[in-house]
Design a protein that fits this description.
Elements lengths: L12 E11 L7 E6 L21 E3 L9 H5 L5 E4 L2 E4 L7 H6 L6 E3 L2 E4 H9 L10 E5 L7 H13 L4 E5 L5 H7 L5 E5 L5 H8 L4 H10 L8 E4 L11
Parallel strand pairs: 2-8, 8-9, 9-10, 10-11
Antiparallel strand pairs: 1-2, 1-7, 3-6, 4-5
Helix pairs in contact: 3-4
Amino acid sequence: MKLSQGQVMTTSKGYIFDIKRFATHDGKGIRTTVFFKGCPLRCKWCQNPEGLSYLPQVLYMESKCMHCLSCVHASKQGGVRCVDHKICISRNIKEDWDAICDVCPTLALSMDAKEYTVEECVHEILKDEIFFKREGGVTFSGGEPFLQSDFLIDLLKACKEKGIHTAIETSLYTDLENVQKALPYLDQIYCDCKLYDENLHKQYTGVSNEKILKNIAYLLQSNKKAHVIVRTPLIPTMTASF
């Protein structure tokens, strides 16, 4: 990626599990949504479970597998075995999973995330630049973007240098300092108040909402308050009753 004059190369890196192009439900206009790997919450209704773990994990799609056993032979520690003519994956075993995925001829094995530098990620975002001219831009989602706060903030700065409209979808389960660092580079903030009752929040998400509510209060008193949208997912018997 060619850098403009005055632009600083950064060594910041992060894990992304998907980049969705031509998104129309993650902010104004046509957007590119970047999904960060890792989330500190464990919501009972999670719609992106592949984004929960921070570290990349191997995925196996049996429908693509031709049972050539290349992956079994490439496995050095028994992470991939063939049992009763079926491929069995033990993800907790330390393996060179990238190398194992590389030998699969049908892509039945793949990693669920890729490591990007800031420059690499911005390069991918800019492929859609033509769609950003009418209120479009980039939305950072997840997972939880603030779990990789340094990478997120560096990405936001790089996007603003390119004149890209920026938005975030976040649980706000992070330190206030991270919110304060990111805020100057955000044009739109979508944040979740999943449940107001702390005990219910713990029951259905696994964490307290104290930090979240404090961050929401800060945003609604900031100079970006007009660009903050607080959302509650309506989940029958959990966050919504009829």
